[in-house]
């Protein structure tokens, strides 16, 4: 457990006012986001069959919560880590057209998450996915989509300021772009997370691109990414410098999804070529699902950012160690 307690923290909103603000942010953001990216809301599962290969494997070491169902025999069922692969199949199943997309309120459990100011075992995010052409699998498409998302987040800053002027956290006016290799070249002696803090503090808001593959200097990855949904050359994270905690905060992970060639290459690097026989992976290999771009935007993280909160538990009801609860309460940090 790693907990940051800022000095002299004073919440600008009461617990009940915070709940009102959470509802406002979530409802307003998803409407603006839907319009900006041409998305339609769909219902999505909390669990999937393990044998489908649809669950997100994250870094490959986190174990999903699993169980069996009375009427499903002994087939393992898994609580989703995210819906990265499910969404791509849904676009095909539901008959979405080129440049149309979907979004959903995704809830998940990541029981192996290390709990801190930003991380909870309970995940709530807007998962989204949009159809593009093969020719649009480019850095330009990725950057253009990132700018659209940043535009919506900036719009929300103004909306929150209008409704809750005493509490809004002010954001930078521009998002910048940098690759993980550029960060390693600039700060070779720093860890990847230290590099993210340094660049976020310098630029205010940045999209860190190309996450998952090995870096040239160290031969190590900047951070983990599953090998079978994002193309590691066409993905990234949106991060902001967050003054209340004096470090960066990640709001979104997203990317252009793998095609057959990039998936085979990445699975080989990851030593996970056995997944190629799974139904989802066969669909990608046989080009039976559309080319897409997609990602997730943390709902609680966004509320935390816009309201200047210092712990995700202030905007999300979850479970926390008693020691963390006690320390937060003593510091005026009220966990829901």
Automatic annotation (TrEMBL):
One of the GO biological process terms: L-asparagine biosynthetic process
Location(s), subcellular: Cytoplasm
Molecular function (Gene Ontology), one example: catalytic activity, acting on a protein
Keyword entries, A-Z: Amino-acid biosynthesis, Asparagine biosynthesis, ATP-binding, Cytoplasm, Ligase, Nucleotide-binding
EC annotation from Swiss-Prot or TrEMBL: 6.3.1.1
Catalysed reactions listed for this entry: L-aspartate + NH4(+) + ATP = L-asparagine + AMP + diphosphate + H(+)
One term under GO cellular component: cytosol
Keyword check for ATP-binding: yes
InterPro entries associated with the record: aa-tRNA-synth_II (IPR006195), aa-tRNA-synth_II/BPL/LPL (IPR045864), AsnA (IPR004618)
NCBIfam families: asnA
Family in the record: Belongs to the class-II aminoacyl-tRNA synthetase family. AsnA subfamily.
HAMAP family found in the cross-reference section: AsnA
Protein name: Aspartate--ammonia ligase
